[in-house]
């Protein structure tokens, strides 16, 4: 079973030959520190992924600098770095990330201004959200044409103690837009995941009702109990993540790390429908020795780059 087959099995709630693994973000500094390299290109990033035994590459969206600061970029300016190589030269399952309405609103208007717009519930908010929906549908079409195998809608809508907006605002304002976007992308016959940091327990039912195939993140430090979520939503959502990235940043011995990894797998991997990884990706500060322990890299990796 190759990586694509393994991930597809998890998304379809089937048991694979082994638990698939993936990270939503892999910062260049992590690759450089792990491989002792000065620069990161496609070949080195792929080597890093192979060393960890990951099954997924998740590509963020980049735009040229021609777009106006406070408006959505042009779809024609969208790029996913090396997507053709990831699709055609590897057997990895290729995800791309798209920002949702909340993420675009805070990015373009600023956090406080966008929340004020949500609280006013004006027609300009409806117009903005519709423009983001149409924008993302066009991006999704481009990504599917390039061969992407899955899409993540990234919308960090929660703090560690709960949503950034009230549940009623979520259901009245944000959720209908998200549901329309899901319907449009689902028509493309491609798996669709929702990502948010923080505690989204209050809207898990809504995420299922929207039609998402999976949930990425599941931040344990924010009270997201993956065992409980698996019992209640495991038949509907493929769960991806849950490892607190602090375990990779702070000093821990190999046994401590393996105990944490095994506890997550025991809680969520039974019956399929689970992808192992951190809740938020790999960022600067991750210790290479912790990565080796968590992902079972048995020997120290020495490479001249």
How is the secondary structure organized here?
Elements: H1 3-11, H2 28-35, H3 42-52, E1 56-59, H4 83-89, E2 93-99, H5 101-109, H6 111-120, H7 123-145, E3 150-154, E4 158-159, E5 162-163, H8 167-186, E6 192-195, H9 204-210, E7 214-217, H10 226-233, E8 238-243, H11 246-249, H12 254-268, E9 274-278, H13 288-294
Parallel strand pairs: 1-2, 2-3, 3-6, 6-7, 7-8, 8-9
Antiparallel strand pairs: 4-5
Task: List SSEs in N-to-C order.
Answer: HHHEHEHHHEEEHEHEHEHHEH
How many domains in all?
1
Query: Structural class given helices, strands, pairing?
Result: alpha/beta
CATH architecture: Alpha-Beta Barrel
Question: Reading side by side through the largest sheet, how are the strands ordered?
Answer: 1-2-3-6-7-8-9
Basic shape: globular
Unreliable stretches covering 5 or more consecutive residues: 299-304
What share of the residues lie within helices? 40-55%
Number of β-strand runs: 9
> Which class in CATH terms?
Alpha Beta
**Beta-strand percent range:** 5-15%
Distance between the termini: 31 Å
The rounded Rg comes to 19 Å
SS field, number of helical segments: 13
The third-level CATH topology is: TIM Barrel
Global mean pLDDT: 91
For the sheet with most strands, the description reads:
7 strands, parallel
What's a concise summary of this model?
With 305 residues, this protein is an alpha/beta fold. It has 13 helices and nine strands.
Structure, explained:
With 305 residues, the chain is an alpha/beta fold. The protein has one domain: Alpha-Beta Barrel (TIM Barrel). The protein is 45% helix and 13% strand. The chain has helices spanning 3-11, 28-35, 42-52, 83-89, 101-109, 111-120, 123-145, 167-186, 204-210, 226-233, 246-249, 254-268, 288-294, and strands at residues 56-59, 93-99, 150-154, 158-159, 162-163, 192-195, 214-217, 238-243, 274-278. The strands form two sheets. It has a seven-stranded parallel β-sheet. α4 (83-89) links the parallel β1 and β2 (93-99). α5 (101-109) crosses α6, α7 (123-145) packs parallel to α8 and α10 (226-233) runs parallel beside α12. It starts with a helix and ends in an 11-residue tail after the last helix.
